[in-house]
Amino acid sequence: MNTHHQSTTNSIDLQFDKDHLWHPYTSMTNALPAYGVIAANGVELQLENGKKLIDGTSSWWACIHGYSHPKIVAAMQQQTAQLSHVMFGGITHRPAVELARLLVDMTSPKLTKVFLADSGSIAVEVAMKMALQYWQGRSQPSKQKILTIKNGYHGDTFAAMSVCDPEGGMHTMFGELVTKQLFAPAPQSKFNQAFNPQELDEISAIFADNHQHIAALLVEPIMQGAGGMRFYHPDYLAALRQLCDKYNVLLILDEIATGFGRTGKLFAYEHSAIEADILCLGKALTGGYISLAATMCTDEVAQGVSDSPAGVFMHGPTFMGNPLACAAAVASLELIKENHWQQQIGAIEAQLKQELAEAADYPNVVDVRVLGGVGVLEMSNILDTAQLQQQFVDLGVWIRPFSNLIYIMPPYCISSADLSKLTTAMKIVAKQTELPNATGEFISHG
Q1: How far, in whole angstroms, is CA 356 from its chain's centroid?
Q2: How does DSSP assign 373-436, residue by residue?
Q3: Which residues pair with 295 in a beta bridge?
Q4: Catalytic residue annotation
Q5: What per-residue string of b and e applies to 12-51 under the rule 16 or more CB within 10 Å gives b?
Q6: What does the CA dihedral 362, 193, 255, 95 come to, rounded to 10 degrees?
Q7: How far is it, in rounded angstroms, from Cα 425 to Cα 175?
Q8: Is 269 annotated as a binding residue?
Q9: 421 marked as binding residue
Q10: 60 labelled as ligand-binding?
Q11: Helix (H, G, I), strand (E, B) or coil at 146
């Protein structure tokens, strides 16, 4: 036993954390600072030193109802006491059935089958496997490629990595181990501007030349999240649906970041009035309280998978359909059904547009964009995450920038006053961020 690492108090041992715990996208030799959180309530995180921070990220876009919501907490406590986990092989339970019923009712009519997985990345893996098995069941086993668009992000596991941006993405270093997929240019027509149909030319050509090998088109609808927080035109997504129909290709929509109201519609695909063949859900599915994801598909896809040589769908995680996670999801979706999110997101969007508008005049801000409960300041330079993180903490907010983006996706229940604190902090930090010097090199570079 490494007794010299034992903590003598009840405090969070940040040094042990730094020495032994790997955090997302961090180095173990030059780790980003980690802040000790001991509690959370509403929209506030409480640090160990007693300081409270308004959370502008909804814990990576998931905790949409805020922290310690009594309905979700009560549902989880009751479920833990009754049945926290049981294998899903040959066994079912009420939380899974209730959750599936809610999802089938909430999503588009054709989505009737529900696969409950562990996380968003796995939901994407499941969707891709469904697509490949479907075409095996339809006697077209040569359809094994996935087509997607650049600037996308779909997760960190190997199949999910293969459909993330192939150039500027975070997974370019894995070389030949990552399956080579087909990539079309990212959409350029912005959500609230005129649509240019010419930007469909290249992806249309890819469909025409490769459709006999394409199993599915996989995209994030309307908002590309970790690939750059980009909002694209609904007509583009509608055209993708038409291309899939024309060339007999399945459409997989990754709504893990956009689902359950974040973009102003319950699901982002509703902006384009289309339906998916396969739909991936996660993050806010449980209100951000515990990991759970779902992959939904149509009767036709389910039939094709069942007709494949395997005769069954070849996936079954140990914690599939976990009762505790399903109970949290049911409670979260019941809150969604109360429809308060529509007024909440509308108010957040209006306030973000009003309060962030002035940042467009800052010399180091390239673009200001808002959609639903998402506000983004795109900066002219790559940001020093650790430095800006400390600035935001000093200002009493939790905002985690990445690349050249300062953005927020706050819990839906945030008050106008707390939202103003977030936008004020964004503007203060954005205004202070250094510009390129005379040589064209950025002074502040992470």
Answers
A1: 23
A2: TEEEEEESS---HHHHHHHHHHTTEE---BTTEEEE---TT--HHHHHHHHHHHHHHHHHSPPB
A3: 115, 280
A4: 25, 153, 254, 283
A5: bbeeeeeeeeeeeebeeeeeeeebeeeebebbbbbbeeee
A6: 100
A7: 40
A8: no
A9: no
A10: yes
A11: strand
Q: Identity (one letter) of the amino acid at 172?
A: T
37 in Cβ contact with 48 (< 8 Å): yes
CB atoms inside a 10 Å sphere around CB 163:
30
Query: Helices in 1-54 by DSSP H: which ranges?
Result: 14-20
Which residue, chain included where needed, has tokens 């935001």?
A: 392
Quick one: DSSP state of residue 198?
G
* Residue 400 counted as an annotated binding residue: yes
Interatomic CA distance for residues 339 and 425, integer angstroms: 30
Instruction: Determine if residue 120 is labeled as part of a ligand binding site.
Output: yes
Contact predicate 387/429, CB 8 Å: no
Q: Give the DSSP per-residue string, 69-80.
A: -HHHHHHHHHHH
Q: Residue-wise pLDDT tens for the chain (446 aa)?
A: 454 445 445 799 999 999 999 999 899 998 889 999 999 999 999 999 999 999 999 999 999 999 999 999 999 999 999 999 999 999 999 999 999 999 999 999 999 999 999 999 999 999 999 999 999 999 999 999 999 999 999 999 999 999 999 886 667 788 888 899 999 999 999 999 999 999 999 999 999 999 999 999 999 999 999 999 999 999 999 999 999 999 999 999 999 999 999 999 999 999 999 999 999 999 999 999 999 999 999 999 999 999 999 999 999 999 999 999 999 999 999 999 999 999 999 999 999 999 999 999 999 999 999 999 999 999 999 999 999 999 999 999 999 999 999 999 999 999 999 999 999 999 999 999 865 443 333 333 22
Burial class (CB in 10 A: 0-12, 13-18, 19+), 279: buried
Residue 119 carries which side chain, given as an amino acid letter? Answer: S
Strands 230-231 and 250-254: unpaired
Contacts of 217 (CB under 8 A, 6+ apart): 146, 147, 148, 240, 243, 244, 249, 250, 251, 252
Element (H, E) at 196: none
Q: Are 102 and 286 in contact (CB under 8 A)?
A: no
Pairwise CA distance, residues 266 & 20, whole Å: 40
Is 316 annotated as belonging to a binding site?
A: yes
Q: What are phi and psi of 323, to 5 degrees?
A: -60, -40
